[in-house]
Amino acid sequence: MQLTCFKAYDIRGRVGENLDDAIARRIGTAFAYVMSEKVEGDVRIVVGRDCRESSPALAEALIEGLLDQGADVLDIGLAGTEEVYFATAHLGAAGGLEVTASHNPKEYNGMKMVGPSSRPLDPIAELAEIRHFAEQGELPEVQPKGRYATTDVRAAYAAHVCDFIDPDCLKPLRIVVNAGNGTAGPAFDAIAGELHRRGAPLSFIRVNHEADGRFPNGVPNPILRENHSMTAEPVKAEGADIGVAWDGDFDRCFLFDDEGNFVDGEYIVALLAESFLLDRVGETIVYDPRVVWNTRAAVDELGGTAVMSRTGHAFMKAKMREVNAVYGGEMSAHHYFRDFAYCDSGMIPWLKLVEFLSRIDRSLSNAVSHMRQAYPSSGEINFAVPDPQAAVEAVVTRLGPEALTIDSLDGASLTFDNWRMNLRASNTEPLLRLNVETRGDRELLHDRVSYLTDLIERTACASV
User: Fold this and answer.
1) Residue range 11-152, CATH number
2) Which has the least CB within 10 A, 55, 125, 230, 343?
3) Domain coordinates of the chain in residue numbers?
């Protein structure tokens, strides 16, 4: 049986087509078998799920598979992916699974998986092994079966997240929070309650707050331009200081400034780097190769060490562990924290940002204005091409002789006198992704984007 729901880093599929309860049960059995080889004694697995209508049944089948293979299950119920990360490390479990399709349409579902200490699974070894056993479906029967228990770690999770900031530093701020009818609402409420108990002078305007897997206000994917107004308009109408919007499983958050403008991810990475380096001079910050100049400048100015990593959570987390980085950020809104088991969180970023803005006594729009001027960028531009790698090679062949440097860590990064580009094939989709940045020259930015768009499209047509 071939399972097409297995992707580069996780599991994702259309429910009823390439993902169903029977497949979820197979995955549970295979996951328990592979994790049992990594720990001594009882194998305990954390399971959580998002609010999609298909998630309860898939989680139940997944749990049955885990129990059948002798694993004990710690069911945390409705929870975000980062709550599974936290619970896995906090409870000393052998692994964790979140049933979620994140920002995909409601017809989809999937699973995100971690091993002991919430380490990501190796795609080449562990994930491939799980896929192999799930497809074979011929594992030996285990006796006794595993034990099932529900557990609640949300209060401990909320307390840990709030430990990242000092509430005494906070100024009275009004914050719009948009859960997108995804899974963020209950976790946010626990965090807001903990902040109140600690005396934080913050007030919140909740938007699309109730978890509803039908997604009545659209799929919770705040990076899409058509979804920006759902957060931007309340920010302007309420005179809020900041807006926060989450994707479906809230492992990513997206920020809007006090004028209702969406703040691009690379600027948030730089601000979060600064927030840590204020008190921790010399710490290491990890960043991805897509847009880099602004982050490097911010880290250098505060005496930190900037280290580049390949894009993707497995690569980012591995690099952070290697260099003992306090924080790692991707422009796609994945933010990783050493004191959160090196995992990504959608709640810690906005908290750290609110604390940082309070400490420097500036609005978010003011804090990013000089960054936008000094290092304007294109945002990620996607191209559907028949052969993404061939397109990358064609662009490098054309522009390589003019470049000052060419870096192939992740796709192709070409640096010129006053502009830079990164072109890479997606790890998960048949897409080519382009990012362009300049040193303070928006006219050059528009010119280079136009030129590269034409070059890529002509290359794609020639290969058909």
Assistant:
1) 3.40.120.10
2) 125
3) 11-152, 156-374, 381-463
